[in-house]
Amino acid sequence: MSKYSNLSGHFLIAMPDLQDPNFNRTVTFICEHNENGAFGIVINRQVDANVGEVLSQLNISSVEGNPYAGNNVFIGGPVEVERGLILHSSEAEWSTTLVEIDGIAVTSSLDIMRAIGNGDAPEKFLVSIGYAGWGPGQLEQELVSNAWLNGPADSKIIFDTPVEQRWNAAAALLGVDLSLLSHEIGHA
User: Fold this and answer.
1) How far apart are CA 158 and CA 188, in angstroms?
2) What's the number of domains the chain is made of?
3) Interior/surface letters 21-44, b for 16+ CB within 10 angstroms, e for the rest
4) What pTM, to 2 d.p., does this model score?
5) In tens digits, what is the pLDDT along the chain, a chain of 188 residues?
6) Which of 22, 47, 76, 112 is paired with 164 by a 20 to 30 Å CA distance?
7) Nearest Cα to Cα of residue 167 among 22, 58, 9, 24
8) 169 located within any domain
């Protein structure tokens, strides 16, 4: 494995020149990274759907006045877009928590969605559809070709920073001003 062998719990921050429409100006929380590849969840791309609609599609009842029903749903990435994943604070246990890193967990089970429907959600969470995935060595090659910045994740950016500010805020954690890296600076 290369020097990039463990980016679990890190942010991948798209460089300004990354033109792939799935990842242009995104921040991805890396859930797992090992010799078999990597998977993560994009935390700053929303779809035109909300949690209430997802609960309805899953035939999960929602309490009247559910405070989470209007929460936006995120596009976690282009892989398995029919699959739902919940990125959340890890103060409770769920039947299918896939990963838990530094107080941030990823769960795919219906019990967490039922809890959200009952108004008993984790303290902080976001619902995503799909995820980002890389095969063995693929992410390392993208890092070598300067497609991404990477650094330790911060739950405040995932859960508390306005979505439209997450890309710049994640880079700022590394001391990077993305506007200074863009090839488009000064162009009208």
Assistant:
1) 32
2) 1
3) eebebbbbbbbbbeeeebbbbbbb
4) 0.90
5) 344 468 999 999 999 999 899 999 999 999 999 999 999 999 999 999 999 999 999 999 888 889 999 999 999 999 999 889 999 998 877 888 888 888 999 998 889 999 999 988 999 999 999 999 999 999 999 999 999 999 999 999 999 999 999 999 999 999 999 888 755 444 44
6) 112
7) 24
8) yes
Instruction: Give domain status of residue 185, yes or no.
Output: no
- What's the token pair of residue 91? 């103060």
CATH code for the domain in which residue 17 is found: 3.40.1740.10
Tell me whether residue 188 is in a domain: no
Beta bridge partners of 131: 79
The phi, psi pair for 66, rounded to 5°, reads -50, 120
Do residues 87 and 41 lie in contact, with contact meaning Cβ atoms separated by under 8 Å?
yes
C-alpha dist (Å) from residue 159 to 19, 50, 126, 163: 26, 16, 8, 9
User: Could you count the other beta carbons within 10 Å of the beta carbon of residue 64?
Assistant: 7
On whether residue 187 sits in a domain, the answer given is no
Domain range enclosing 83 = 10-180
Query: Residue written as tokens 């062998």?
Result: 5
